[in-house]
Specification:
The protein has about 375 residues and is an alpha/beta fold. It contains 14 helices and 14 strands. Bound molecules: pyridoxal-5'-phosphate (PLP).
Amino acid sequence: MPLLMIPGPIEVSDRVKEAAAGAPPGHLAPDFIESFGAALERMRRVWLAGDDAQPFIVAGSGTIAMEMAVVNLLEPGQGAVVASSGYFSQRIAEMARRRGVEVTMVEAEPGAAPALDAVEAALAKGGCKALLATHVDTSTGVRVDAKALAGLARQHDALFVLDGVCATGAERLEMEAWGVDVYLTASQKAIGLPAGLALLVASRRALAARAGLKALPPMSLDFEQWLPIMEAYEARQPKYFSTPATTLVKALPVGLDEILEHGMDARFALHERAGRAFRAAWASMGLTLLPKDEAIAANSLSAVMLPDGVGPDLVAAVKARDVVIAGGLYPSLKTQYFRVGHMGVVLTRPADLEKTVRAVGEALDEKGHAVDVDAAVKAFQAVFAG
Ligand SMILES: *Cc1c(COP(=O)(O)O)cnc(C)c1O
């Protein structure tokens, strides 16, 4: 298998693979019940959420988790502000519009973060039930200031929903301390599992918002359908609403444990160091980033502009070197940049990271952009070694 360096799905550890292997358990099996309960408990700790916050584990994808947040917190006629940093912010805005919500977009140019004063001005107009944002927009590689956005939401009495699909478990987020109401992700990103689980933690305020809805959410996404199931499994009792993804849930506490064993501070610091090391390698190759400012460049992935004369077929030339990277995603810039994911277990394998730097450098060189590959690898190592 080639080395998977896209921004999700990511490489999966041997322990997670082993935990997912074997006969799929039934949803009433004692070991499965224990895994489900343990995963819920560990989610609170990875999310840095309070004891009263409610984790949900539902079969699905990041998009399902986004939709779940939208339909449980908002109903037709209510207002929401979307602080947009790219493709996935636009997606959650469209979900809200389809729910009949009045959406105010605070846009940023691709590569920029939405301006906090513009977000504040939109909230100050009133009538905003929720502020929605994307922690790391995987299309642009931009990380927003989640702590500041949460503060603005609190100040204006709005709920704060943060899409963490390319960030949770990699970028610092303190759900309770910062006051985030829904922080959501999917299993195949920095959590380090195969794809197939929508993962979300909701605050008490978020649950109260659901309880106050007049327009019920679709049944399969409804917090109140799932809440008794989550409470039962956490009390180590099975309860049925809709069959969980048993194979993946079996592996989830193992993946979360790997993160917790590392320690959240150390985990965030490792991703930060990896982000800086990759940026040093790109700079050494004479490349620039799509994010306009290093301070908002994500640590979980790099979005890097293609140099003059090199097209999006760079991705295939890297693949020929056994490393899979991703092309652009932001519609108007799609053919002008490439993306490299650097999150999860692969960060414990420096040789794989150096292989990635080497593969990109050699491929650029082959395409006519001269690169001193050894110098790029050294630039990476100098930062990654700390
Ligand atoms: C990947 C991603 C999604 C979508 O997740 P899927 O599992 O593909 O549905 C949403 N938001 C962000 C920020 C992502 O990176």
